[in-house]
Design goal:
The chain is mainly beta and 356 residues long. The chain has one helix and 27 strands. The relative contact order is 0.11.
Length: 356
């Protein structure tokens, strides 16, 4: 993708712990279901999740003091009609921020997700609870399954490309919705780049670490699209995996009007095609492998042509010049009119000779 410079800078009620009745959070309770809580509302405080009996309004905390981008372990709950309530952590007033009524069924496994913007009164954006039932499909012995939830308040419908290979496994995932229950089957024990796209254009990507065989993971997309690099920017909250920030973004600016267009290859694969003089291209670099090679070649040459300049980069551990290439950071490479290749980030600049 190239962008011209001028355009670029864009339930039957259940009694709680009374008279020896079952405890809804007691894992020894027979015929139970399992529930887990995921905090994915970036401006909400630490949260408690309460279970309230619909018929009596008696309630108890199920999970407490959960931070943003954190998740709990599954806990067994007695099936029935319950109200799920979010409260500020440790709030003695008992006032809930939001609540929903739900029926919890025997044998069910459910994720409860706090999503949206806690400080907003806009019905389309404000804080809410999402419930997602786990029902992953069967998989081969060497596979994993991934499923996604769209919890970004300002992102339109998303497309997901697992592997970032040009094939969309999830298309048209609306805000505050979840993808197909069965999930997408992928190879285990390899890192996976998850591309997020809008109307076919790459928005950003995340790199999942290698996951062992038979893993089923829910990926919750949270944060603002418009706050790249900010604490409220896009993240993936993946229970069992952790918090993932989006891959580093590098911008290549061609200011060498004498040499004309060039192509950019990353690890031998074409990443930017025919970048004209005066244009800037965006290159998203996965965080695995750590060491990667970027080649700059005069169009239509390809590495290892003598017209190519190769540069090895370290992702996460720093680049020559002392600047770390960390997730979410913005970097610039340029070809200037003096045949100089420059890497620049804040005040750090690295100059290298380019094509002969």
């Amino acid at each position: 993708m190239t962008i011209q410079i001028g355009r670029w800078l864009g339930q039957a009620g259940v009694v709680l712990l009374l008279g020896g009745c079952p405890n809804p959070g007691d894992p020894s309770t027979p015929d139970s279901m399992e529930l887990r809580f995921i905090h994915a509302s970036f401006d909400a405080p630490k949260l408690d999740l309460y279970l309230t009996e619909v018929s009596s309004d008696r309630s108890m905390p199920l999970f407490t003091n959960v931070n943003y981008a954190s998740f709990t372990q599954f806990k067994s709950v007695t099936p029935g009609r319950w109200r799920l309530e979010l409260r500020p952590a440790g709030d003695p007033s008992g006032a809930s921020l939001i609540g929903i009524d739900t029926v919890l069924s025997r044998g069910q496994r459910m994720e409860v997700i706090a999503a949206g913007v806690a400080s907003s009164n806009d019905p389309a954006l404000r804080l809410r609870l999402l419930t997602v039932e786990e029902s992953f499909g069967s998989m081969a012995a060497s596979s994993i399954r991934l499923r996604a939830v769209h919890a970004s308040p300002d992102a339109p419908a998303l497309q997901l490309d697992f592997g970032n290979d040009g094939t969309l496994e999830v298309d048209g995932l609306e805000r505050f919705a979840d993808s197909d229950q069965s999930g997408v089957e992928l190879q285990s024990n390899v890192s996976t780049q998850v591309g997020l796209l809008v109307e076919g254009r790459i928005l950003t990507s995340f790199t999942l670490p290698p996951l062992p065989a038979a893993t089923s993971a829910l990926l919750v997309v949270s944060g603002y699209v418009g706050k790249t690099g900010d604490l409220q920017g896009l993240v993936l909250v993946a229970p069992g995996v952790g918090l993932l920030r989006h891959d580093p973004e590098l911008y290549v600016l061609n200011l060498n009007f004498d040499l004309g267009a060039f192509d950019v290859y990353r690890s031998g694969e074409l990443a930017l095609d025919h970048l004209e003089a005066g244009a800037v291209g965006r290159l998203i670099v996965p965080t695995n492998p750590v060491y990667q090679v970027v080649d700059f070649c005069r169009s239509p040459d390809a590495p290892p042509s003598s017209n190519c300049l190769s540069r090895s980069i370290q992702v996460g551990n720093g680049l020559p010049g002392g600047s770390p290439l960390s997730a979410g950071a913005g970097y610039v490479w340029t070809f200037d009119p003096h045949n100089t290749y420059a890497y620049a980030e804040t005040n750090d600049t690295l100059y290298l000779p380019t094509f002969e």
